[in-house]
């Protein structure tokens, strides 16, 4: 699983981000964020997707804010799926019971029928504060605005005045009765490192993530952008996109 996260163990008064876990094959971005400061946010109204049975007002708030952020940028909203909500609620409950923020280590097996799957988790004084913290972090914001995801499940637990939340994102591997959207082919992590001269859908995804022209060809500009990204992580910056770099990007 590629846990997208900014640099390891970065901390500010508003947010704290944990280092990514090792990345199993073909899983997508997951990120951790903790919101400590109370942030005032505008109340977003109107349900964008169907609500799962028993959805709480806090979960609805997270869903509305997430889809409002996508729609305001012309990105399709995410459909809420009960299966993903159940996985997210279990993770939120585990974190709240332990008073500890961490990734779901079983995400790839807990979530069924996925081509891409990922997770944001966090806690804070309210849904608005945590959402703002997510959106203020480029890594977590990238998960929320990722065009490859089509579905979401949000689970939240309020304990001792603290809101714990898990957001589980998915793009299904196949169409089922509970994921009735057309699924086109998207690139999984390549088996070999991408380097100068590489071509294909995986190169296009890397270029899109870095804000480059999506040519599908790993040329000098892509190599330089990867090298710069690697140096930002404190790495040597050789310019090849291997497992480690892919995992940090996605």
Question: Care to give the gist of this entry?
Answer:
With 250 residues, the protein is an alpha/beta fold. It has helices spanning 57-71, 82-98, 107-110, 127-136, 138-144, 201-209, 220-232, 243-249; strands spanning 10-11, 15-17, 30-35, 79-80, 114-124, 151-159, 162-172. The longest helix is centred in the middle third of the chain and has 17 residues, at 82-98.
Provide an overview of this structure.
- The protein is built from eight helices and seven strands.
- The termini are close together.
- With 250 residues, it is of the alpha/beta class.
SSE order and pairing:
Blueprint: E1 10-11, E2 15-17, E3 30-35, H1 57-71, E4 79-80, H2 82-98, H3 107-110, E5 114-124, H4 127-136, H5 138-144, E6 151-159, E7 162-172, H6 201-209, H7 220-232, H8 243-249
Parallel strand pairs: 3-5, 4-6
Antiparallel strand pairs: 1-2, 2-3, 5-7, 6-7
> Helix segment count?
8
Instruction: Report the uncertain regions.
Output: 1-26, 34-49, 179-187
In the sheet with the most strands, the strands line up as 1-2-3-5-7-6-4
The main pleated sheet reads as: 7 strands, mixed
CA-based gyration radius: 18 Å
Helix content: 25-40%
Reading the helices and strands in chain order gives EEEHEHHEHHEEHHH
* Arithmetic mean pLDDT: 77
Distance between the termini: 9 Å
Total E-strand runs: 7
Q: Helices and strands: which structural class?
A: alpha/beta
- Overall 3D shape: elongated
**What is the beta-strand fraction?**
15-25%
